[in-house]
């Protein structure tokens, strides 16, 4: 079999997904045996024009991590789509918007104001903000255009597979590497994870869920065996796809929802809100008001990784 | 925003046992009320998944009205209490998403309260008319 051509790209992301690929340790040598890497900005010195010079469809697989929030990222996503047979949304940002998509609660102006004017680490007495086009005496300088709304990869180009996770766990990466090696990829459109919720694979003991107080993680030391929701912690398990191996749960931390909604769920936040309000066992109006107060940031908590692909997508401003 | 030609589109989720019959009662009693609510009959107000509310907005509704049995009267004993907890939390979340909380209203209407149904519909329609159309587009 001729060697596969593999591209790995990052757009609006933290780099954790690239590190996760290296976390497969010595198996990375299998990847090198299996595939020639043609683009990997974080690790190798290939340029965009190398990719542009390739024939359309000549890259076998592109692992694309990060969400899309500016014109350069859009351009490269479209370029890689054209050159790749299989496009994989790699990691929660590419799948659902991820942490960068929390910027969908604000817009470009507010993001710039915070990043370039307010942030205490800035020295910017001239109050300069990035401009798409800037005239200097040598000519015109161009920066990518920064968008108001952060998008998931499939909101920009068609995507074959989704690998959720912040970052995707090593065993799922290896599963894909094996599937590539044996040419046994699942049906296009598949999410490479479980079809069920995290609760299905969670090892903790679950009894009847009734709580009367929400605790934030720093307020209690949870018991290691008992369901975290039953202990009053907001655990996103009921509204989150399984397949992660309950990594956070095993570290005694509640699920934050990075695997996105399970199969058949349109809106992760709405489902989590519904589940949480259902188990909060109070009837009196003042107690209900207390519950609402205890859940300090419902939108940010329930859509921590999923604003871009949520039903309302962003804040109306 | 006070466009005089604006007719609010309101999606109403009415429980089968109390509120839907309350709406029937309003009809039987020949009560006049605003024609702006499109009624969806559900078996219980507890069936109203918050996803339905988001979907209504996504599809262009200007407001969502949820009506159920009075507390203690739920045909399934607990359903309306679940809704009573979900809706205030949902309103808090919608505010964070830039949607005025008055665009969602939860109230209780029994099978006998035709007049109450009519006045809730009128109040809600007036409120949403005052707020103006919901902006479906996703500009920042």
Overall pLDDT metric of chain A: 95
CATH class of chain B: Alpha Beta
Number of helices of chain B: 4
- What Rg of chain B is obtained from the alpha carbons, in whole angstroms? 15 Å
Structural class of chain B: alpha/beta
N-to-C order of helices and strands of chain A: EHHEHEEHEHHEEEEHHHHHH
* Tally of distinct domains of chain B: 1
Q: Please write the string of helix (H) and strand (E) elements of chain B.
A: EHEHEHEH
Layout of SSEs?
The complex is a heterodimer of chains A (317) and B (140).
Chain A: E1 4-10, H1 16-22, H2 28-34, E2 35-39, H3 48-52, E3 59-65, E4 68-70, H4 71-83, E5 84-90, H5 92-96, H6 108-118, E6 133-136, E7 139-142, E8 146-151, E9 161-163, H7 170-181, H8 198-201, H9 247-250, H10 268-279, H11 285-294, H12 298-302
Parallel strand pairs in A: 1-2, 1-3, 3-5, 5-9
Antiparallel strand pairs in A: 4-8, 6-7
Chain B: E1 10-15, H1 19-28, E2 37-42, H2 50-58, E3 63-68, H3 79-96, E4 104-108, H4 114-131
Parallel strand pairs in B: 1-2, 1-3, 3-4
Helix pairs in contact in B: 1-4
């Amino acid at each position: 079999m001729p060697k596969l051509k593999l591209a790995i790209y990052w757009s609006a992301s933290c780099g954790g997904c690239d590190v996760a690929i290296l976390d497969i340790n010595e198996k990375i040598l299998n990847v090198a045996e299996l595939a020639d890497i043609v683009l990997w900005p974080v690790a190798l010195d290939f340029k965009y024009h190398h990719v542009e010079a390739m024939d359309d469809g000549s890259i076998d697989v592109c692992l694309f991590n990060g969400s899309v929030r500016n014109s350069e990222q859009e351009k490269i996503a479209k370029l890689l789509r054209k050159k790749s047979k299989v496009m994989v949304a790699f990691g929660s940002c590419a799948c659902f918007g991820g942490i960068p998509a929390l910027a969908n609660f604000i817009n470009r102006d507010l993001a710039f104001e915070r990043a370039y004017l307010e942030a205490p680490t800035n020295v910017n007495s001239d109050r300069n903000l990035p401009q798409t086009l800037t005239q200097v005496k040598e000519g015109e300088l161009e920066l990518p255009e920064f968008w108001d709304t952060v998008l998931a990869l499939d909101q920009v180009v068609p995507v074959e597979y989704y690998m959720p996770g912040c970052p995707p766990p090593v065993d799922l990466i290896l599963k894909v590497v094996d599937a590539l090696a044996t040419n046994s990829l699942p049906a296009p459109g598949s999410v490479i994870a479980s079809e069920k919720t995290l609760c299905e694979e969670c090892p903790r003991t679950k009894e009847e869920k009734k709580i009367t107080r929400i605790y934030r993680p720093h307020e209690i030391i949870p018991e290691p065996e008992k369901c975290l929701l039953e202990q009053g912690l907001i655990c996103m398990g009921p509204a989150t796809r399984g397949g992660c191996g309950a990594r956070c749960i095993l570290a005694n931390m509640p699920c934050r929802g990075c695997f996105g909604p399970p199969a058949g769920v349109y809106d992760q936040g709405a489902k989590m809100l519904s589940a949480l309000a259902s188990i909060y066992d109070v009837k009196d109006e003042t107690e209900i008001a207390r519950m609402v107060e205890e859940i300090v940031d419902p939108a940010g908590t329930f859509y921590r990784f999923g604003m871009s692909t949520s039903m309302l997508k962003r804040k109306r401003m | 925003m006070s466009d005089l030609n604006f007719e609010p589109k309101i999606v109403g989720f009415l429980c089968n046992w109390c509120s839907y019959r309350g709406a029937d009662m309003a009809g039987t009693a020949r009560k006049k009320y605003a024609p702006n609510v499109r009624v969806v009959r559900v078996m219980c107000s507890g069936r109203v998944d918050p996803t339905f509310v988001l979907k209504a907005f996504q599809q262009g509704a200007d407001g969502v009205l949820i009506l159920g049995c009075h507390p203690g009267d739920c045909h399934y004993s607990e359903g309306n209490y679940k809704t009573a907890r979900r809706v205030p939390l949902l309103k808090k979340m919608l505010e964070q998403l830039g949607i005025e909380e008055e665009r969602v209203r939860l109230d209780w209407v029994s099978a006998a309260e035709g007049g109450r149904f009519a006045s809730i519909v009128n109040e809600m329609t007036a409120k949403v008319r005052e707020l103006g159309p919901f902006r479906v587009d996703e500009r920042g």
